[in-house]
Amino acid sequence: MSRSDVLVDADWAEAHIGDPGVVIVEVDEDTSAYDKGHIPTAIKLDWKKDLQDPVRRDFVDKTGFESLLSERGISNDDTVLLYGGNNNWFAAYAYWYFTLYGHDKVLLLDGGRKKWELDSRELTTDVPERPRTSYTASEQDASLRALRDEVVAAIGQRNLVDVRSPDEFTGRLLAPAHLPQEQAQRAGHIPTARNVPWSKAANEDGTFRPDDELRSLYESEAGLDFGRDTIAYCRIGERSAHTWFVLHELLGLPNVKNYDGSWTEYGSLVGVPIELGEAR
Amino acid sequence: MSTPDGCGAPAGGISVSAASGTFGGQAVVEGRVVHDGAPVASGYARLLGTGDEFVAEVPLGDDGGFRFFAAPGSWTLRVLAPGGLRAERSVQADYGQVTKVDVAI
Which of A140, A167, A195 is the last residue of a domain? Predict the structure, then answer.
């Protein structure tokens, strides 16, 4: 797998608007951006309403994923092109879901919604109608998802990459700075984790940095051992999906998992070790 | 106040024209971005920490507004908008204060 198999630029997207085999999907937490204007022919997925379990703390299961994609008119054979706001955080998270459930052809739009907007490319409020399909998902690929016990066992054993901002890593902030800071869980990070903020993998316009710079960022600067397995985490698992995309999809590292429970789970567990301050 | 409880910025931006000052002990940095006297409704505000470290980013609201919940200290605010427009300001935040930063680009 190479970069061009998983990542396309805005020119590619523009050239494939209306292509019957390509479904463009905007993924956001707050879909009001889609409602104000989106890439022509794009449908929307609401990260919370569509992709999270409404009761349990978990994401949509296999059956739910199948019904969602069938209802939105996505077929197993379609090439799904994902993009979104927040520098593609939620689009990368959705990319991880599609991969987890075995979708064959899934792509991420480099730079996402921001780059598209900053380029002043066309946005529309027209909502496409797609006929219903009968989508079949695979069982979740457990090699891509880390759960809490595996994370605790990985302390000192695997690469743990905390992709939150340095202030969240050290315990100065409990959440990204566009959110109120009232969360109740403990601050800090998982012992032995390296802090490589997701933002270091992206340019200011939201596009990904070149492969050689990314490799150097994680290997030389952060000291990750690329021979070891890796778990990435953040606060709720979407920024770490962005880093999972970099490590697993762009750089092709074989054993990289996203810990979607992330700090909101780990920082609320009773009795697990936590470190404050800089990485040790 | 409408704020997502996940990690995402309010994608449609926020309106700071509505009454603020109800954020308790939060260290709020907020303002509006204008160009030629008109609100910049399509663009982004980023908050940067020490060493230009990215902290957060929000899309501008219909009134050009943005709002961050920071921590006490010095921050850099950077604004990006279509047409290559950009601007940068230094800001100080503190708990219980709403620091207003209006930016003309």
Answer: A140
Q: A209-264 pLDDT, tens per residue?
A: 999 999 999 999 999 999 999 999 999 999 999 999 999 999 999 999 999 999 99
Residues B43-81: tens digit of each pLDDT = 999 999 878 888 889 999 999 999 998 889 999 999 999
- Percentage of chain A surpassing pLDDT 90? 85
**pLDDT, tens only, A26-59:** 998 778 889 989 999 999 999 889 999 989 999 9
Rounded-to-integer distance, Cα B29 and Cα B41, Å: 18
User: Which element (helix H / strand E) includes A92?
Assistant: helix A85-100
How many angstroms separate the CA of residue B48 from the nearest CA in chain A? 10
Per the domain annotation, does B13 fall within a domain?
no
DSSP strands (E only) in A47-168: 79-83, 106-109, 159-162
pLDDT for the residue B19 = 45
Enumerate the residues of chain B whose CB falls inside 8 A of the CB of residue A196.
none
**What's the CATH code of the domain at B60?**
2.60.40.10
A123 shares its domain with A208: no
Range of the domain at B98: 27-104
Q: What is the dihedral of CA A104, A110, A115, A117, to 10 degrees?
A: -10
Q: Which residues of A touch B95 (CB under 8 A)?
A: none
Count of CB pairs separated by less than 8 Å, A with B: 115
Q: Are A7 and A108 in contact (CB under 8 A)?
A: yes
Considering only the beta carbons, identify the residue of A28, A32, A197 that sits closest to B54: A197
- The Cα A151–Cα A153 span in angstroms is 5
Q: Do A30 and B10 touch (CB under 8 A)?
A: yes
Q: Which of B:22-81 have CB within 8 Å of A? A: 23, 26, 42-44, 46-47, 49, 53-59, 67-71, 80-81
The CATH number given to whatever domain includes residue A228 is 3.40.250.10
Query: Quick one: closest CA in B to A31, which residue?
Result: B11
pLDDT band at B12 (very low <50, low <70, confident <90, very high): low
Shortest CB distance from B59 goes to which of A85, A90, A177? A85
